[in-house]
Fold this protein.
Amino acid sequence: MRMRSFVNGAVLVVSLSLTLVLLPIAINVGTGGTAPAFLAPYVGWVWPLIGVLWVLVIATALLEVRNRRRPRLAHRSADQPRNRRNALDRVDRYLSERRAGSLASRTRIALALDGKPDAVRPFDLFVQPLNSAPRRIPYEADIDTVFDELEDSMLVLGAPGAGKTTLLLDLARRLAAQAHADQQAPIPVVVDLAGWTAQSSHRNDDDPNDSPLLAGFVRWLSYELSDRYSIPPGVGRTWLRHGQLALLLDGLDEIAEAHRAKLEPVLKELRHNYQVGQLAVTCRTHDYERLPRQLSLFGAVHIRPLTRQQVLDYFAIVGPALDGARAAIEHDDELWELVSSPLMLNVMTLAYQGRAPEDVTAGGVADLRRELFDTFICEVLARNRKTGRQYDAKTAVRRLWCLAWWTRSRAGDRTAVPRWMAPDGWYGLSLREVDSLTHAVCLPAFFAALSAGATLMMLAQYGALAGLAVAGSALVLVHLLPHPWQKLAARGPDRGLLFAVILLIGTAATIAVTGAALGLVELLTAKIALAIEAALVAGAYCVELIVFHDNRRRMWLGVRLVVVVAASWIVLSLGDGVPFASGAAIGLLVAQGIRMIKSLPTDHLPATDVGDTWRMDVCVAAGAVAAFLIALVLGADLATQQLEAVAGIVVGTVAAKAWRRRPPVLAGPLSRWLHDLLLHWTGYLPWRRRAFLQYAADRYVLARTGHSQYAFIHLLVRDHLAECTPDELATKVERRILEREGG
């Protein structure tokens, strides 16, 4: 906390110094003012300094905006009454948002069941205390009464969709009411176990008596409490130690399978070292039975599957609105086995609500669960609801599929919908449409942009020979191995527009970088610029000499180094150093740029069908020709002959070792940026994240779980979307939309 306060104070001081003192002085001197005598030799640096100061001002402003957007945590001592009151308010808010966003709540709203309390819990609960036989819980019994009977130590078991999380949230609401009434009662906190990765390590602020595994668990728990309920980590640790928190842990089965067995010793040690008076854990029955050791809890509550009579009673309570669902069940007996949980009952309710019986009796299907979920998705997306943004079926389903696929692939995390993709290669996600756009559109555009931008800058600065040298170097480097591009047909929306966008961005970036390099060489003088370039090249060579033990490779490295040094010495002895240093800088940049572009598609798609060797050469040549035409139109003096610049380009290209297969440092971030762009371009990720998440929440696919936080309405809904074929499901949604419009 002290370090964060120090950093915030430092940012504030720097911001004030920049905006009120340094930047005004620099602008005054740069626009003709008089500089102090001791600064007179450095007046030529004023405008570059102004640019740097502007960048620093913008950076500090962005830091301040980010700090203001973070939730402010109370740093008072843990026994302050306001801390407890604030925490309870946040718990209440979270529970109400989870309840409002649940599928059960959406079903009750759609069917107007809020006035029918007998339709609240259409399932049976069986309680089994430690070393005792199971017995049925009376229908009117409250879950907090059962929790108290099990001495505040309970395991909730059930099948997928049985209502385990719903039961845990109900318990949390009742415990929160007790905490409001009794200042000594612990505060209930619902925590999703999916994010626990069983990290085992000790840090300075951990309790020395805790094992590394428990220390990692307490750290993770403190972070979850801070993120979800804004409880400061220090306060959370204190409350945990003194028994002021009731831990309600949801989803043992959602922990990565390799770490599930580690929860038992962690909870055992936690209850020994900390005063955890109230503890509840939920888990799927099948996954719990596979654990090598069971949890040391006093008893378990089993949620039994729905019976046929319970389903019929539920339909009778709802009335004619579910005649279509009743007809579907009566038409196909296998649906009875499928509708055995509240989740599937709610899915069927929302899928067939208000539909005529004859519309839903079109015959059985091989995979009833998949078909029922397809029907649910089709129905909720086809309904016209007033939202700020509308999406066509193909776009909506593609985005839901991508979010579901990504969320499921994240170590069991089912509650996070990403703001952007995490930096993990290409995430194991290989889409034919995205791959074809990468190889058939983006790579040609990048090569053409690099060639056009660099050639244009050298033409403008040093004439036609320098431009030809850059274009020739780029052409040779692209033609040399490796050739990672594949022979894929261009598929996807607006291919011409995408090519133009990539070409424009790439050309602008190339001109900006090469222009900055040329300006820096002019500013620093030739000797300093060459010293910096030599240091960069020598550093790279030294690393290779140390890392690689191949004597033949070392020999060629030495030969290349001798050639570069000798050529540089000869040119500097006979000619002007500035054009040579500029050419060397451009040669290095072009070579590294080509290496980077070649590295873009190689980390996610195996090279099975290598494309035409000459295909990218044409793009490079076209970019160079375009640069010459633009230079002629703009009136550039192409007759200027700067042989030193040509020599510098050749030396820089040779020194860069651009034919190495190892990708450069920035290839990974650029590859991820390109993949994210193409996922957005093809409709797999939303451009406006918040608008799409709200759209999906309005249609019961997502649920809002907090400020700007959304979750899939249920694990099974997420898994179904992740496993579907998005375009096929989108076709079904479009068909259903046409049926509703026609009806």
Observations:
- The beta strands are 125-129, 135-136, 153-158, 187-192, 245-250, 278-284, 299-303, 702-706, 709-712.
- Confidence is low (pLDDT under 50) at residues 69-75, 111-122, 411-426.
- The longest strand covers residues 278-284.
- The two ends are 62 Å apart (CA to CA).
